[in-house]
Each structure stands twice: as structure tokens, then as C-alpha cells.
Amino acid sequence: MPLPAPLTSASHPLARQLRALGRGVRERREEGLFLVEGPRGLEEALDAGAPLAWALFAAGRTGRPPLDGLIARCLSAGVPVQPVQDALLERLAPAEHGPGAAAACALPAMADAPGPLLAARRLVVVAWEIQNPGSVGALVRSAAAFGAAGLVAAGGADPWGPKAVRASAGAIHRLPCARTEHGAALLEPLAAAGRRLVAAVARGGAAPAAVDWSGPVTLLLGSEVAGLPPELEARAQRVTIPTTGTVESLSVPIAGSILLHAAFAAPDQ
User: Fold this and answer.
1) Nearest C-alpha neighbor of 241 from the set 208, 199, 198, 197
2) For residue 19, what are the domain limits?
3) What count of Cα atoms within 13 Å lies in the side-chain half-sphere of residue 219?
């Protein structure tokens, strides 16, 4: 099937939408879409059967691998394909280096509704006011790898922001996620959900092997700077990863991954 002529104008509706999706949470919610970048990111979305609204490709690279194969897959799946002048796509996309491809994927219906996840009968991760999008994306990846029911971002970075999506390595399409605008908005729903809370703390908590990870557990991970709210931590069982003590603490993605693995490998799972 012949492809359309390449886009050359930043004022085209698709170009404007691409720029908006990389800009912020409000724009992504207004459009009901989020951005997937690069050949690998698009391949991950297609492999997961993610609902794609459109796919843009660097016009100068459409006739050779890997873009030619991705274009064929998009057309076979009924995804509208549009070539874009290479320099324009590089200028519009959030990635630091020209991605070669970018696609818009539909946001899940529960993107801003954590209630269904808090009713899950398995472990759910709550990322509390974690501002680094790469950290949030890495947690999404680990939560998917170790069988969590989902992840709730309580404030902080948007799991569907470009950097978080890239860091998730495709897991954003497979793991149920939700977000609240501010962490405080989750305090009451967490209390009402009746879930067992396990709070990761740098020191003074139980060893991961001593925690009962079975059933509806919420693993609370706070930011490296502010941690968790005292009133939330006070209601939770505290857990600490044993270390040599030569460093003050582990990064949030590493600590979260270790604890998720401990829960996954627990005998009662």
C-alpha cells in the first residue's frame, strides 16, 4: 500500500498532537493518548496489542529495516501510518535523539481511577510522590516482571509520560496502572480499602523474608528525598532491605525491585 506524502509542517494536526503528548499530564488526559517512541517502543506496543491511534515514521528511513517491518505491522493492524520529514520528527519528538518512529496509544480507562487496583487480591505497588519519571517507569517494569497486580502513582511523575514509558520497556502496556494528581488524594482510599500496608524504609524495618506478602498487600515506596507521610508509615508494617551500610540508602527502583522479587519468591505465593 502506498504511503501518504511526508508531513513537512509543524502546524499539521498530527504534528501538534505529537508535541502535546510529550508536553505534560494535562495534554495527555485531554487527548486520551500517550506517546510511544522509537522502533523498539513501537514494537513493544504492537507485541502487547496496545490500541494505537496513529504511527509516524521518519520518511527517509521508511524503506529499510526496522521501519519497513513496523510499517507493515501497523498497516496490518489497521493503524494509520504517516511519514514525516526526518528533521521535523526529530524536532517534535521528546526523545533526545531522533526516534525514527512515534505512535499515539490510548490511555487506559482507569488511568486516573486507582479504586479497581486497590480492590485487587494481590500485591499492588504505590509509588508515593516519586518525581523522577525514569524511576516510575522502572518500577512499572519490575512490578510487571514480578507479578504485581498493578501500580498506583500517588502524585509525582506520570507513568504515561515519555521518559516513564521508555523506562518501562513495554511493561506500561501490560501492567494495570493508575495515578492520582497528589499523594494526599490516596490517603482516604487506602484507609478504606482494608489492605495490609508494607512500607519500605531505609532502616529499622523487618527483613523482607519476615513479611507476609500473601493476599491484598500494598507495597508503599516513597521518594528518596521526602519518603512516606508519617501518618501512612505509622499504619504500615515497615520493611528494610539488609545492606552493608556503606551507602545511606538504595535508589527507589532498585529497592522496589528487590522487595517485589522477595514478594514473588515468598513461599506463600
Assistant:
1) 208
2) 13-106
3) 36
Q: pLDDT tens digit string along 129-170?
A: 999 999 999 999 999 999 999 999 999 999 999 999 999 999
Residue 19 lies in a domain: yes
What does the block give as the cell for 180? Answer: 492520582
Are residues 100 and 189 located together in one domain of the fold? Answer: no
Domain assignment of residue 1, yes or no? no
- Cell 506520570 locates to 158
Considering its fold, how many domains does the chain have in total? 2
Residues 77 and 199 in one domain: no
The answer on pLDDT for 269 being more than 80 is: no
Same domain, 147 and 34: no
Whether residues 61 and 122 share a domain: the answer is no
**pLDDT tens across 92-128, in order?**
988 766 679 999 999 999 999 999 999 999 999 999 9
DSSP-based helix, strand, coil % in the chain, nearest 5: 40, 20, 40
63-77 pLDDT per residue, tens = 899 999 999 999 999
Domain boundary among 48, 76, 106: 106
Both 149 and 251 in one domain: the answer is: yes
Supply 95's cell numbers. 526523545
CA distances from 143 to 63, 122, 149, 214, 243 (A): 37, 12, 8, 15, 22
Backbone angles phi, psi at 11, to 5 degrees: -90, -5
**Residue 92 in contact with residue 141, Cβ under 8 Å?**
no
Q: From 239, 178, 189, 169, select the one nearest 210 (Cα to Cα).
A: 239
